Amino acid sequence: QVTLRESGPALVKPTQTLTLTCTFSGFSLNSIGVCVSWVRQPPGKALEWLALIDWDDDKYYSPTLKTRLTISKDTSKNQVVLTMTNMDPADTATYYCARTTGGYDASILYLDQWGQGTLVTVSS
Amino acid sequence: SYELTQPPSVSVSPGQTARITCSGDALPNQYGYWYQQKPGQAPVLLIYKNKERPSGIPERFSGSSSGTIVTLTISGVQAEDEADYYCQSADSSGNYGVIFGGGTKLTVL
Questions:
Q1: How many CB pairs (< 8 A) connect A and B?
Q2: For residue B27, what pLDDT band results from cuts at 50, 70 and 90?
């Protein structure tokens, strides 16, 4: 059974750095084609993809946010960590991590298992 | 940048067929994917590679592709299908990553 769980602070102040951890089970991030993505969703708004790390430790970021994001993995702990710098109230959202299926065909890229999400509020 | 366009809302009566479209210039060369999100819940993958259904997804959900449009069809809509639906593809603008459509709210009348 595949599970993912996001953890991190519920409240951060403007200009602070957010660190979120995705702890997963039921799959290996060492397997070819297996990736983990981060996605966020502001209240009442659409999904927004943020970042992805793949089995080969390659990292990909949203072009609009890449200067603020860092994604990393610790396969020994089955964890993926996302940091986002210089937080702003506009970053208030539910943040999800999701197992992502990718591969050498660049058009095969989808999120097949999601965590429950964690709400992060940015406020002073 | 690459975009996927969905209608903001679709309404249908129970038992009828709902069709939700998603348009994108690169869709002839990219697979489309669909997610369902109910209030307060995480998204769930409904359709992958245009028309494939993950195990556990009811047969009334189907996907198709034609040119620059991918379509999610829900046959025999049930009240429980009221949700937000998002299409997705891989970014084709030169950046490897994921692109979501803006989402469609399905209302079951």
A1: 73
A2: very high
CA nearest A106 in B: which residue? B90
Distance, in Å, from the CA atom of A50 to the CA atom of A94, rounded to the nearest integer, reads 12
Identify any residues that bridge with A19 across adjacent strands, giving them in sequence order: A83
The answer to whether B74 touches B53, Cβ cutoff 8 Å, is no
Å between A15 CA and nearest CA of chain B: 26
Strand, helix or coil for residue A5:
strand
Does B12 score more than 90 pLDDT? Answer: yes
pLDDT of res. B14: 97
| DSSP E strands, B1-109 | 9-12, 18-23, 33-37, 44-47, 61-66, 69-74, 83-90, 98-100, 104-108
Distances from the Cα of B3 to the Cα of A121, B24, B26, B32, angstroms: 27, 6, 9, 13
Q: What is the pLDDT of residue B93?
A: 82
Nearest-CA neighbor of A35 among A97, A86, A83?
A: A97
